[in-house]
Amino acid sequence: MKAVNPRLSRRRFIKAVIASSAAAATNAGVHAAMAQNRPQGTVERLISLNVNGKTRRVDVMPQETLAYTLRYKLGLTGTKIGCNRGECGACTVIIDGVTNYSCSTLTHSVGSRQLQTIEGVAGADGTLHPVQQAFIQELAPQCGFCTPGQVMSAVALLNENPHPSREEVRQALSGNLCRCGAYDNYLNGVMRAAENG
Ligand code: FES
Ligand code: FES
User: Among its keywords, does the record have Protein transport (predicted)?
Assistant: First the structure.
C-alpha cells in the first residue's frame, strides 16, 4: 500500500478547513427551529446590511445578534459561535475596518457600515488572501474552529499595519482563543503573510 506523507495529508485537511470557511451554506432547518423559540410579541424588521460589498436585505428581531443573522438568516456559516458571550473570538468580523465580536453586536446597530466576514476575505476569483495562504503553508489550524476568527483579526491588523512586529501580531490576535493551543502557528502565519504581502 502507498504510504501517505502525513504533512501533505494534513495540508489537504487544512486547505479544506479554510475553503469550507469560505463556503456559504443554508441553515433553513436550524433557523426554523430557532424561530419557534422566538419570544412572544417579538417583531422582525426588514433592514439592509452591507455584507462583503453586497447589499443584503434581511428581517431582524430587535435583540438579534449579528452572529445569528449571519449564520442562520444569511447562510454565512464561516463565522463561528463558540462561547456566544464575547470571550473566545470565534465570531470575529470586521466592521468599517475594526474587528468586532459578532455574538456581542446587535444586528440593528450595524446600520450602513461595511461588514466583512470570512466569506469576503478571498478574492472574487477564489484566490485566497495572503493570510489564508500563509496559514495553509504554516499548517496553522489544528481543529480549525477558531481559524475564521484568527483570519479576520489578522486581516484587520495587516490592513492597518502591513509590517507588524511579532509582539504586535500577538496583541492583535489576543482576543482569539484557540482551544487547540495553536497560537504559535497562527503567529508564524501572520508573520509569513506580512513578509509575502
Ligand atoms: S462566540 Fe463571540 S466571542 Fe465567543
Ligand atoms: S485550531 Fe482548534 S480551536 Fe484553534
Answer: no
CATH of the domain at 35: 3.10.20.30
Best probe residue, ligand 2, of 145, 173, 174, 185 (max atoms within 8 Å of C-beta): 145
Identify the residue whose C-alpha is closest to ligand 1 atom 3: 86
User: Over its length of 197 residues, how does the chain's per-residue pLDDT go in tens digits?
Assistant: 445 566 667 677 677 666 555 444 444 555 555 555 565 667 999 999 999 999 999 999 999 999 999 999 999 999 999 999 999 999 999 999 999 999 999 999 999 999 999 999 999 999 999 999 999 999 999 999 999 999 999 999 999 999 999 999 999 999 999 999 999 999 999 999 999 87
Cα-to-centroid distance, 86 and ligand 1 (Å): 5
> Which strand ranges, in their side-by-side order, compose the sheet holding 114-116?
54-60, 45-51, 114-116, 92-95, 98-101
SS3 content of the chain, % helix, strand, coil (to 5): 45, 15, 45
Centre of ligand 1 to C-alpha 4, Å, is 36
Do 135 and 148 fall within a single domain?
Answer: yes
Query: Could you tell me the residue range of the domain that residue 189 belongs to?
Result: 6-21+123-196
Let me know whether 110 and 144 are in one domain: no
Q: Is there a contact between 99 and 135 (Cβ–Cβ < 8 Å)?
A: no
